[in-house]
């Protein structure tokens, strides 16, 4: 089937990167730095980016990569660089055949820095471009909450493949509906899900493992007969989306259940498997441009699971504009049958009509 090879490489690469992020998650010192925009980056972000780009470069050497991180801070910090190299050089899938297809050890620290910097593509409307967020929700990762390792393949501006690893999400879909997954200390038994999707082939999930891929099962959004019965998801960080506006939209729709707050693209994953129904990300700042690596995989996952994903104007997310979604504002994702109603409420709350 189309893109099956890309999907498998992406799944294995994300699964292996999750072994590294889980290791860092349990370490007290996560090697946190503040980037120019004040957002945090950790050993986990750099290490996961190196491992995933290595797998893409080995299998698809002509593809471009738009990735969140770059190596300049590490080039000035020998101690941190050595700590990351220590992690990266030892992480392997516990299944030789699986590790082989994404493996081939990096030679040394310098090779690791070079591979991290292969993620500097400017993106755009043509060609094969991977969008990589090695840790989405770094603040959640540092808080002990949800985070996700996210990878998507965009071909001529269209998302074809999406893979998201969520080490702290419950494996059991229904448990996810009843537990306050946003604030729970996690990463124990029963946690860790790998989501994947290919355009036209549907969305699936499987437990994350430390070896080869576990068997997958199809996932879909759950039917919501009446919008007032919907559960909505939103981010934990109040600076990333307008929680007051999100609440006003919910109220307008007659939704009384409290929101489920969780960091990262785990929100797209949750609604795609029926653990919640609507994802609202109403803008905080007029000038913030969402990044393609924060949405590409989740966008396709939700659409293939029976949903629609648009911005606050009801426009599909446009991945042809470079590294950011500069022609979109905010994100609204819902079951296809409810999307118009939700967009109407969003536009009323934001005075857009
Ligand atoms: N002002 C902002 N508005 C929307 N998203 C933001 C803003 N600042 C940072 N982000 C991004 O939101 C994502 C996390 O979303 P959520 O809060 O839903 O988990 C991160 O990728 C984060 O980027 P960064 O990686 O630079 O921190
Ligand atoms: Mg992110
Ligand atoms: Mg990130
Ligand atoms: Mg970040």
UniProtKB/TrEMBL annotation:
Role this protein plays: Converts adenosine 3'-phosphate 5'-phosphosulfate (PAPS) to adenosine 5'-phosphosulfate (APS) and 3'(2')-phosphoadenosine 5'-phosphate (PAP) to AMP.
Record-level GO BP terms: inositol phosphate metabolic process; phosphatidylinositol phosphate biosynthetic process; sulfate assimilation; tRNA decay
Sequence similarity: Belongs to the inositol monophosphatase superfamily.
Gene3D superfamilies listed in its UniProt record: 3.40.190.80, Fructose-1,6-Bisphosphatase, subunit A, domain 1
A Pfam family of this chain: Inositol_P
NCBIfam families associated with the record: bisphos_HAL2
Superkingdom of origin organism: Eukaryota
Name of the protein in its database record: 3'(2'),5'-bisphosphate nucleotidase
Residues bound to Mg(2+): 68, 133, 135-136, 294
Necessary cofactors: Mg(2+)
EC numbers: 3.1.3.7
Molecular-function GO terms, alphabetical: 3'(2'),5'-bisphosphate nucleotidase activity; metal ion binding
């Amino acid at each position: 089937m189309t893109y099956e090879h890309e999907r498998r490489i992406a799944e294995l690469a994300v699964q292996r990167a999750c072994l590294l992020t889980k290791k860092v998650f349990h370490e007290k010192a996560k090697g946190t730095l503040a980037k120019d925009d004040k957002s945090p980056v950790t050993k986990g972000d750099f290490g996961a980016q190196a491992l995933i780009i290595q797998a893409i470069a080995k299998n698809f050497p002509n593809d471009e990569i738009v990735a969140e991180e770059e190596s300049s801070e590490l080039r000035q910090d020998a101690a941190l660089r050595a700590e990351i190299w220590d992690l990266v050089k030892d992480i392997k899938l516990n299944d030789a055949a699986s590790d082989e297809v994404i493996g081939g050890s990096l030679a040394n620290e310098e090779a690791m820095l070079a591979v991290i910097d292969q993620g500097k593509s400017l993106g755009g409307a043509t060609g094969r471009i991977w969008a990589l967020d090695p840790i989405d929700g770094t603040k959640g990762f540092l808080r002990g909450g949800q985070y996700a390792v996210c990878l998507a393949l965009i071909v001529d501006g269209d998302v074809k493949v999406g893979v998201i690893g969520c080490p702290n999400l419950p494996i059991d879909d229904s448990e996810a509906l009843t537990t306050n997954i946003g604030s729970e200390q996690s990463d124990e038994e029963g946690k860790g899900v790998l989501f994947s999707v290919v355009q036209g082939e549907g969305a699936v999930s499987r437990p994350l493992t430390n070896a080869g891929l576990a068997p997958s099962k199809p996932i879909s959004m759950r039917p919501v007969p009446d919008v007032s019965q919907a559960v909505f998801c939103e981010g934990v960080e109040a600076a990333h989306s307008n929680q007051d506006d999100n609440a006003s939209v919910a109220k307008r729709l007659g939704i009384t259940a409290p929101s489920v707050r969780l960091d990262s693209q785990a929100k797209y994953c949750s609604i795609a498997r029926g653990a919640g129904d609507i994802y609202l990300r109403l803008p905080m700042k007029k000038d913030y441009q969402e990044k393609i690596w924060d949405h590409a995989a989740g966008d396709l996952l939700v659409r293939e699971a029976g949903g629609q994903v648009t911005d606050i104007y009801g426009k599909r997310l446009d991945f042809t504009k470079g590294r950011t979604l500069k022609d979109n504002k905010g994100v609204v994702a819902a079951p296809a049958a409810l999307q118009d109603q939700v967009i109407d409420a969003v536009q009323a709350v934001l005075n857009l009509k």
